[in-house]
From TrEMBL:
Species this chain originates from: Clostridium sulfidigenes
Protein's name in the database: site-specific DNA-methyltransferase (adenine-specific)
Keyword Plastid on entry: no
Keywords: Coiled coil, Endonuclease, Hydrolase, Methyltransferase, Nuclease, S-adenosyl-L-methionine, Transferase
Domain Type II methyltransferase M.TaqI-like: 354-582
Coiled coil: 442-469
Domain of life assignment: Bacteria
GO molecular function, one term: endonuclease activity
């Protein structure tokens, strides 16, 4: 199956259907904001003011309007769209596999190349079978109108769906009249949903497996799923209507096979000792040889399964979705029945009616699941449909129905003063109130369902008009409530599922409260809740199988759940899947586990665990587990009594740990005895309170506050903020600042408003501004860094503080070592590094012995120095000094140096420090491994990928040199002074244009100014802060000419051409270009994209850009922007550019019309002329927005951040000269 094609079609189909159905609604006078009046005519109605007559009962339209009023137009359209989508794909599957009872294709044709479906040419053959009106059929056939042919096709499709409802309940049940009313038009046209379904998806894909229907549905709702999660990021909780879209995930087939074969398969194989079936099941995992002392227990369990008949084995999927797991359970059940010598024709029906049970909150998904199961039965028995027509199926597939609408008065009417009836119905009504909110997690006790059914039958036969409303509600709702109540109250031999993944934080208040009250141990996520739910559905010694996220195995929030599971159940086997298992989740953050759990404790049972975390791709994992199950592979298999691991402080399921490591946890002191790991604050609104340091006025940042009092007295607004960041060790990731003005009053007030007390989210203030260690909360590896004084810290950049600062370097070294990472991997191998896990790291006192500590301290000091220097080599560091390709040139007064030679020198230095850091880290690993006695478990070697220094890359570093040059051109940096020259404030305080001087300021780490004086500048920035970027040289001073001036000033005039050639070649110089043309093209086309990327979509240089025709481009340094900048840009640059274009155009017009020039020259002139005309036209239009904004005299507030200020110049509504309103951008659209 080509899943890319399936996904592309399904997502397109949803938007197409919604559009077509809305068009249909519009035609019958229903719009988003109004309902138009209609005139009733003899055969139907027409919209007032319209011509088309709809031969449909006006009552159908009334039903539609009523439905829209109770929901919304969008919701009704969505429902109708997926109703028809599901039916269309089901019909396509049936016709391709020759399952349609009529035996004629209804979507396509069997004749290659023929567009219209066969049914239109053979409709006479099915008039009786589909109960068609023959007069109407022949009338429409005889018509020459395309619309009548469409109407005939629509008529046939609807009748076919209605007829299929007799054998396939659910998906083809009779629909509401308004659903037919909104049937999409023009299905026979080229490009319609039906035509694209046939053309875009290979016919063979429909023949592979019925699972294509499930994939279709999952992809169909994928855009809705994306929206739900986008909303969740905006703190919009997941409503019950959106839970299905948010939580459905298709399980890979090989995982399904493991789950089914080792639960359902185990029940039968152990009971009947069925070696033949075991050999057929390729993912059946043999249990380990157990200790003799539990032989009797195991024997009794198997004995209890010996008398089971196939009909006795009930299999439940409480989160069935589209039935993927149940479909494979069907296959295994079929093998079981065959092994018990049942007649093959009887088996499919027996499975559907006796063995397969499914629950879901999504009606559409459960209908698809029901359809797929019936198709599976049809695949095993060709006569299945005929048998079902004679004797309807009793399926056990349920979409949870709500009891909402059944009032106290209705209950009283139903009970008829019978206390048992009243109590039982009241119980069901209370249990299933808002049932779709909770689904199968609801706990349902048995009531007298038979008595309820009997009373309902009595009501069905009544003819009491007084209670007709009550009667109708009961007849509509109660059969479903009884059915689901029965299914949810019985106990099962087997329960198998891939549960929904939805954290408590994403749940709406109603669901969150229910989970907290009823599932306190597992409430943190629905996937863990279902571990308790599945167990509750089982008989004693029953088995449940599940795949879910592996966090429950390790996180402290699931500690009690782990303990409970080990107390009263037994894990038979587990596959630790790791990441990249599901197609919708290609990243490494979400990791999974599949397991088989038996509902009884078997003391000292050795669970067989297979570790697939080291296999990278899903295919590698599949191949490995299949090899393990066949006995061909032994690597990565562990057989362990899981309760043994409870001696580890956080009680993780760290199945790979040996006794030596377990003893370290038991015998050594804990990390918390010497250090204080502390969780940082959550601002509750990072966009409001955090900035990248380069966004704000540098003069408003205090980099050196030692405590809160000093910060308060400084009157500064912004302070350094540790917020985690990428995996990095020793030093770095210093990028953010937080608004902590007046001791954080604004942040605190906001938190207090949200949570009543600000201390709920703003924690550990007493540690703010202290030096310590910091790390990233979510990270694949533990990267700890030294954090000097002056920082506040975030929950994502939690920190560690020591009372004895003398131990800080040893602790940093330990946390950056393989030993600490091993302990953390044991306690919590998820990507969330918890404070609680750090506290429990075993600390060996020998590492603090002076002879060992002195060696560690020296190495750590060097590692910090190396990492800090490397971090500061890049201009996004606030301690950036100068570009490494220019380092020492000024001090050594060296001229005429090539950039290539400087790069080779830097490359050599970079390789040297990487090697040095690698050697240092390996020395530290060796020390800690020896001290802890872990030579058998760990190697000191460090792979290069774990050395967190940036390896220099030629293209990136040349572009970063260009970026630095632009910084010098715009006045941010200087080639004569190290560090940031101007980042806000009065520009004239830093640059003296009259005397060609720049201010040199040196500030130490405590904030003390050691030097503040003017020095001569050999390169001055652009005076007016406007730097045009042009394709050709139109201005005496543009970005290209200024860049050449920069290269001369830094590297010398004699090597200018060599340096230009070097840069141009790195940037991808074309054969037809000179080096200057190549670099000019880079500035014109690519530089700004690189700048946006380097500065995280918060560019400090703003590109004024007229649009796609590139009529005008100019850079402005945001920190120098003032209220007159735009006016100056207009008069001195936009207008001049326009005049230059017009002058050039005049010349070109003469050339293209003159016979004095060759045909080639005239053609070139003609092409350039057309291009210039477009530029001029664009520039004239751009001038309107520039003029408008120039008059606005808009200034910016750097405290608001780059994005907020940038947006002030975007999407501006103006009245154009033609009198029309337009929305225009002044700047490049990010």
């Amino acid at each position: 199956m080509n899943k890319n094609k399936v996904k592309a079609f399904a997502t397109w189909a949803r938007s197409n259907l919604i559009e077509k159905i809305k068009d249909r609604a519009y035609k019958i006078g229903i719009e988003d904001n109004r309902i138009r009046d209609i005139e009733v005519v003899q055969s139907g109605f027409k919209v007032v003011g319209g011509e088309e007559i709809f031969n449909i009962s006006p009552n159908h339209r009334k039903s539609l309007i009523k439905e829209i009023e109770s929901k919304s137009l969008d919701e009704v359209v969505e429902e109708v769209a997926y109703t028809w989508f599901n039916r269309f794909i089901a019909l396509r599957y049936m016709e391709v596999n020759d399952y349609l009872p009529i035996g004629i294709r209804i979507i396509s044709s069997e004749i290659p190349g023929k567009r219209e479906p066969d049914i239109l040419f053979r409709v006479g053959e099915v008039i009786r079978e589909l109960r068609l009106d023959s007069d109407l059929v022949y009338k429409l056939l005889d018509s020459s109108k395309n619309s009548d042919r469409e109407n005939l096709y629509k008529y046939i499709l609807i009748r076919q769906c209605n007829e299929l409802g007799n054998i396939i309940p659910g998906l083809f049940e009779r629909i509401e009249d308004y659903t037919e009313l909104l049937f999409p038009d023009n299905l026979l046209e080229e490009g319609s949903i039906l035509m694209k379904m046939c053309s875009d998806i290979d016919e063979e894909d429909w023949k592979e497996e019925v699972e294509i229907i499930g994939w279709m549905y999952q992809y169909y709702i994928s855009e809705k799923k994306d929206k739900v999660f986008d909303d969740l990021k905006k703190n919009v909780k997941i409503t019950k209507e959106n839970i299905p879209a948010a939580t459905q995930l298709f399980t890979p087939k090989w995982i399904v096979k493991y789950l089914v074969e080792n639960s359902l398969g185990t029940i039968w194989i152990q009971g009947r000792e069925d070696e033949n079936l075991k050999n057929e099941l390729k993912y059946y995992l043999e249990e380990d040889i157990q200790d003799f002392e539990i032989d009797d227990i195991l024997h009794n369990i198997k004995l209890g399964r010996k008398n089971l008949h196939p009909e006795d084995i009930k299999v439940l999927d409480p989160c069935m979705g589209s039935g993927h797991i149940l479909l494979y359970a069907f296959d295994v059940l079929y093998k079981i029945y065959k092994s018990a010598a049942y007649p093959e024709r009887e088996i499919p029906r027996k499975i559907l009616e006796n063995n397969i049970f499914g629950l879901d909150i999504d009606l559409r998904a459960s209908q698809i699941g029901m359809f797929c199961l019936i198709m599976k039965a049809r695949a095993y028995n060709r006569r299945f449909f005929r048998e079902v027509e004679k004797n309807p199926l009793k399926l056990n597939i349920v979409a949870i129905e709500e009891s909402n609408g059944i009032t106290y008065e209705i209950i009283e009417y139903f009970a008829k003063e019978d206390e048992e009836l009243r109590g039982d119905l009241s119980y069901l009504v209370n249990t299933f109130k808002d049932g779709k909110e909770f689904g199968s997690i609801l706990r349902v006790e048995k009531v007298n369902f038979q008595r309820l059914k009997e009373r309902l039958e009595e009501i069905n036969e009544e003819n009491n008009l007084v209670f007709s409303d009550y009667r109708q509600i009961l007849l509509n709702k109660l059969p479903k409530l009884i059915n689901q109540g029965e299914i949810m109250s019985i106990k099962y031999e087997v329960c198998i599922t891939n549960p929904p993944y939805m954290g408590l934080r994403g749940a709406n208040d109603t669901l969150a409260k229910y989970l907290t009250n009823h599932y306190p141990l597992s409430k943190h996520d629905l996937f863990s809740v279902y571990m308790e739910v599945c167990k509750s559905y089982l008989k004693k010694d029953g088995i449940y199988a599940m795949v879910n996220q592996h966090s429950w195995m390790f996180l402290s929030s699931f500690l009690e759940l782990r303990g409970k599971l080990l107390e009263d159940s037994t894990f038979i086997s587990m596959i630790h899947l790791g990441s990249r298992v599901f197609e919708d989740n290609v990243g490494t953050i979400v990791q999974n586990v599949a397991f088989i759990n038996q509902n009884s404790e078997i003391p000292k049972y050795k669970t067989r665990v297979v570790d697939l975390t080291k296999e990278v791709t899903a295919l590698e994992k599949k191949v490995k587990i299949k090899s393990v199950c066949s006995g061909m592979e032994r690597d990565g298999i562990y057989n362990i009594w899981l309760k043994k691991l409870m001696t580890i402080p956080t009680k993780p399921f760290a199945y790979w740990v040996n006794d030596n490591v377990l003893n370290l946890f038991s015998n050594l002191h804990k990390f918390e005895n010497i250090a204080k790991p502390r969780q940082g604050m959550a601002t509750s609104d990072n966009k409001r309170f955090l900035r990248d340091w380069y966004e704000v006025d540098i003069n408003e940042i205090n980099f050196s506050a030692v405590d809160r009092d000093e910060a308060l007295l400084s009157k500064k607004k912004w302070f350094p903020y540790n917020k985690g960041g990428e995996y990095r060790k020793w030093f770095g990731n210093n990028r953010y600042v937080i608004n902590w003005e007046n001791d954080g009053s604004e942040v605190k007030d906001y938190a207090a408003m949200l949570y009543k007390s600000y201390s709920r989210t703003i924690k550990n203030e007493e540690f703010y501004f202290k030096s310590g260690l910091t790390y990233t909360f979510i990270s694949e590896n533990m990267g700890v860094r030294y954090s000097p004084q002056g920082f506040i810290f975030d929950v994502a950049g939690s920190s560690i503080f020591l009372d004895d600062k003398d131990l800080e370097k040893v602790v940093l070294a330990l946390l950056c070592s393989k030993v600490a990472n091993m302990f953390l991997d044991i306690m919590n191998p998820t990507y969330n590094i918890q404070v609680g896990d750090l506290k429990n790291i075993p600390i060996h006192e020998d590492v603090f012995k002076e002879e060992i500590k002195s060696i560690i301290d020296e190495i750590v000091e060097e590692n910090i120095a190396i990492s800090e220097a490397e971090w500061n080599d890049f201009e996004t560091s606030w301690n950036f000094r100068t570009h490494p390709l220019m380092r020492d040139l000024r001090e050594r007064k060296v001229k005429n140096v090539t950039i290539e030679s400087r790069f080779k020198l830097w490359e050599k230095e970079n390789m040297k420090i990487i090697e040095k850091l690698k050697n240092n880290e390996e020395k530290l690993n060796k020390i800690f491994i020896d001290v802890y006695g872990l030579n058998e478990e760990l190697s000191p070697d460090v792979p290069y990928k774990d050395i967190t220094l940036r390896r220099i890359e030629l293209e990136r570093e040349v572009k970063s040199l260009i970026s630095f040059a632009v910084g010098c051109i715009m006045g941010r940096y200087s080639i004569d002074v190290d560090g940031l020259v101007y980042g806000g404030g009065n520009f004239q305080d830093k640059w003296d244009f009259k005397n060609h001087r720049v201010k040199k300021v040196e500030i130490d780490s405590t904030g003390k100014v050691n030097e503040n004086r003017w020095v001569n500048s050999s390169f001055m920035p652009k005076f007016d802060n406007i730097m045009p970027i042009t394709e050709e040289k139109y201005f005496s001073e543009d970005l290209m000419t200024k860049f050449i001036e920069f290269l001369k000033a830094v590297y010398g005039n004699e090597v200018l051409e060599e340096n230009l050639n070097f840069i141009a070649n790195i940037l991808g110089k074309k054969d037809s270009e000179t080096s200057r043309q190549s670099i000019r093209r880079y500035f014109f086309k690519e530089f700004y994209k690189d700048h946006i990327k380097a500065y995280g979509k918060k560019p400090i240089y703003w590109l004024f850009d007229s649009g796609k025709n590139d009529g005008f481009k100019a850079l402005v340094y945001a920190h120098r922007h003032d209220s007159l900048t735009v006016a100056l840009l207009r008069t001195e640059y936009v207008h001049i550019m326009q005049r230059k274009y017009e002058g050039e155009l005049s010349t070109l017009e003469l050339i293209k019309d003159s016979q004095e020039y060759s045909a080639k020259e005239r053609a070139i002139a003609r092409k350039k002329s057309e291009k210039l005309k477009r530029k001029i036209e664009e520039l004239i239009e751009y001038d309107e927005i520039v003029a408008y904004m120039a008059n606005e005299k808009k200034s910016i507030n750097l405290d608001e951040g780059i994005k907020e200020n940038y947006d002030k110049f975007q999407g501006i509504k103006i009245m154009k000269t033609n009198g029309k309103e337009a929305k225009m951008n002044l700047l490049y659209k990010i």
